[in-house]
Amino acid sequence: MTGLTTRLARWVASARFDDLPGDVVDRTERHLLDALAAAVVGHDRPWTRRVRAYAAAESPSGRSIAVPTGPELRPEWAALVNGTAMHGFEIDDYALPGLSHPSCAVVPAALALAQETGCDGRRLLTALAVGYEITVRFGRATTPSLTSDRGFHVTSALGVFGAAATAAALCGLGEENTHAAFGIAASLAGGTAEFTRTGGDVKRLHGGFAASAGVRAAALARAGLTGPTAAVEGERGFLAAFVENARPGQLTDGLGRDWASVDLGIKPLCVCAGLQAPLAALDELIEREDIGRQEIHEVRVGLDEPTLAHVGRLGPRPADLTEAQLSLHHAVATRLVLGGNDPAHYRAFEEGREPPEVAEVGRRVAGHLDPRSDEVFPERVLATVTLRLANGRELSARSEAPGSPRRPLGAGEVRAKFGRLVAPVLGEGATDRVAERVAALRTDSDADAVLAPMWKTVATPVRQTGEPGQ
Length: 470
Fold this sequence. Notes:
By secondary structure, the protein is α+β, with helices and mostly antiparallel strands. It has 22 helices and eight strands. α5 packs parallel to α8, α5 packs across α11 (about 200-220) and α8 (about 155-170) runs antiparallel to α9 (about 175-190).
């Protein structure tokens, strides 16, 4: 076996905790904590409830919890539910320049298998670090062509490889079986980005699809099934099928030495990653100039071309929550009228309680191509916001997406976000205990002492209060 697929498999199979740089371990812990917050926020979404009911009906009994409300399922099914929850409210992480959403694929795969098979905290962190690295490298190799030229969604199309790598590392598959897992994963990759044009719930499921497919690929490989030798780089392999302008060297150049997971970003707000910079620039302008909403007559937002195409076409009156969290017009108007872009603000939209002023303000928002933003994309996501006030005065500000690799959130900020999102659901005490258990992973060798109590801590308070919407 020779080529990219082989080199990827060899590296995954040989990864050990002691080989992980300290900053990689720190980053992995932060993103695990952030993923758990996303799962808690997304657990009661209508699509998550439906997927959970479907999984509970189809899965045999297992040890993997569909967080945070149960039931205990087989790993593939638990990964489907948890990945859907993590990706289901636009608050999960992402990467630049690869634009993938790694956590909603790799974290559900890792936790489901860790519960099923038993492992210590270091092995879990190693599997997660490997999954993040593989997902980000696939993003580097395929973005933006994967979406811009072919219309695939990065989360499902790329996440399956990260989830398969995570599963292979956690289960201790050797090089040959890991190679097979990549080959099988290439046949399970998919998911279109049509939701950016015509909406639909299925976008919410893409993290779950990737996570469960990665678990399946590793399980089939472990059972002796094989894939193409050159499943990634071959003449009819993944890159040829999914990408018009691929950069295959990004998959393995410096692998194990130059960690691509430095590209990971964390969203402060529950909207598309491409909307974080415009909202930050809007905040900076309002704070700097002490502007009231009633003074703003028009908002013009300059973005790069791919981001503008992704978020700029849905308009001020989204048909569903998917469109609302991807719409530039609606996101800006929500921030101006309701004061934020957190889950509570979007529940008003879901429940039909959104004031008509949101749509009115949204009609005064316009997106346009900004050459400077376009020049630096996808390495950076910049936005220029120009406000035209009622008195004719114009004010502008340019901002980089907070939480992005060049403007990262620190550990304290990630922990604060975790508390802000999780405490309203679990309570302060349970929220603190979950954070403590994540921090203990690198030192605790007893899986039952870390993993099971962590999930029970998450699950129990929600069970006691009842599951919303049931």
